[in-house]
Amino acid sequence: MIFNFRNTSSSPSELGGVKGKGEGRKGLNLLPFSLSPFPSPHLAFLGWQTTSAVCAVFLLVSVSSFHQSAIANIDKQSQLIAQQSKTQPHPVFKSILPKLKQKTQIKILLPKFIPESDGENRIYAIIEAATKNNYDILLGFSPDCSGGTACRLGVLSAEAVTRKTPRLTGKTVSLAKGITGYFVDFACGANCSDATLTWRQQGVQYVVGLKAGDRTSLIKMANSAINP
Question: Which residues in the chain show pLDDT less than 50?
Fold first, then answer.
C-alpha cells in the first residue's frame, strides 16, 4: 500500500489556483500582542500611571480621615472641658474646698453663680465653722472679713436634718429638680440683714444668703448649687 503525503503549506499556484497578492509570505502573525518577555514601555507607563492614581486617592482618603478624626477629638475635648466647667463650683471656693471636704461628711453644695463676683472687688470664701454634720461659709470682700457689714457679701451653710431641726418658714419658691425653697427677705435697721433662701435635699438643709439681697439672685444662686 502506498501513501501519498501532500504539503499543506503549498501555495495556491501549486494547487492549481491563481497566485494572489502577498503570496510567498511564510504566514500571518495571528497574535495581537508581542510574545516578548519584556513588557511594552507603553504598557509599563500606563501601569505606573494607574498605580500613582490609586496611591494618590488612598493618600487623600487617609489625610481626610485623619483630619476628621482630629476635629472630632478636639470637639470631644472642648465638650468635656465645657461640661467640667459647668459642674465645678465658683472659683472663690477653690482654696477652701480641700479643707471643707476633710472636715465634713455631708454632701457639699456650692454655687457656681455669686452676685457681684464679676465686678472690680474680689470676693473671698472663708470657713467660719466645719464639722462632721455642718459647715458655715462667709462670703466677703476681704480675706480677713469676720462678718462686719462693710466687708460682708453673704453666707452659705448646710447641716444634717434631724428631729430637732426647726421647721422651714418663709415664702415658698420653686427651685431646680422640683425642690421647694423658702425665701426670707432682709430687714434694715442700723444695718441690713441677709435675705436667705433655704431648702432641703437628701437629708441636708442648705441656706444661701445675701446682704440686702433680692429673691431673683438667691434663686439663681441656689439653682447653680443644686444643678450638677
Answer: 1-34, 43, 63, 66-67, 70, 73-74, 77-85
Residue 134: CA atoms inside 13 Å, Cβ hemisphere, count?
13
Degrees to nearest 5, angle at CA 196 with 169 and 156: 120
Residues 6 or more apart whose Cβ sits within 8 Å of residue 133: 104, 105, 106, 159, 160
Mark 69-86 as b/e (b = at least 16 C-beta within 10 Å): eeeeeeeeeeeeeeeeee
Q: Find the angle CA(82)-CA(84)-CA(86) to the nearest 5 degrees.
A: 70
CB-based burial label for 195 (10 Å; 0-12, 13-18, 19+): buried
Query: What is the rounded distance in angstroms from the CA atom of residue 86 to the CA atom of residue 12?
Result: 101
Residue 155 belongs to what H/E stretch? strand 152-160
Q: What is the pLDDT of residue 42?
A: 52
CA–CA dist 116, 217 (Å, integer):
10
**Residue 160 contacts by C-beta under 8 Å, 6 or more apart in sequence?**
106, 133, 134, 203, 204, 205
Give bridge partners of residue 157 from the DSSP assignment: 136, 207
- Amino acid 56: pLDDT: 58
CA-based nearest residue to 91, from 124, 135, 119, 127: 124
pTM exceeding 0.90: no
What lies within 8 Å, CB to CB, of 154 at 6+ separation is: 114, 139, 194, 208, 209, 210, 211, 213
